[in-house]
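Shift notes (night). Ran RluA family pseudouridine synthase while the centrifuge was going.
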Amino acid sequence: MSVITDTFIAPPCHDEIEILFQDDHLVLINKPAGLLSLSGKNPQNLDSVHHRLVRIFPGCTLVHRLDFGTSGLLVVARNKAINAALCQQFSQRSVTKVYSALLCGHLRDDEGVIDAAIAKDPALFPLMSICAIHGKPARSRFKVIERFHREGEDGTLLPLTRVELIPETGRTHQLRIHCQQLGHPILGCDLYGGRLLPGTELTPRLMLHASALNFVHPVSGEKIEARNRCPF
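Came back to this:
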């Protein structure tokens, strides 16, 4: 049996968490890129969304997470009952999440579905893999917003596609590995090919942002339709 060893040390994140909404039950934030959602086991990875917020909102817990390099909308529960109610919405897939991303290259189709099971493999950690036999079902939808070229520092023109991504399931690294499977990795993704094309090596961050989050407030019953502008 392979033993997973996590050697990742997160660089300091000097960006602040933006609180977009708060009441007695939950907090809605804009997570900066380059900040862990939860503190790691290594004491050098103490800084995280939860580590910062629990000082302001004692007893708060994360309902879901965003990858270290991903920015955008996160909902945080202020007590265990709210956490359970929101987790139920996520498990029943009644929560809609929309991400904005820049993909390497120009996609041929204007929209489509990526249906590819994802599996953990300790030998490949931290990478996930596409595996129809051992993987868990994973499904994502994409829609092209625009195709364009961006000039790199060396003057080369880099073809990029701006897309909206909607994960219908919530597997680890789902959008990143699904975009790689599509043949167009997310720009800046160091794990799944987003820094391999000429002109992509110096991309400052993972170009993936949680831009919309729709759910029902567990106390008021109000439909929350949160939106957050993409920073890239």
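Helices lie at 49-56, 80-91, 174-182. The chain has a mean pLDDT of 95.
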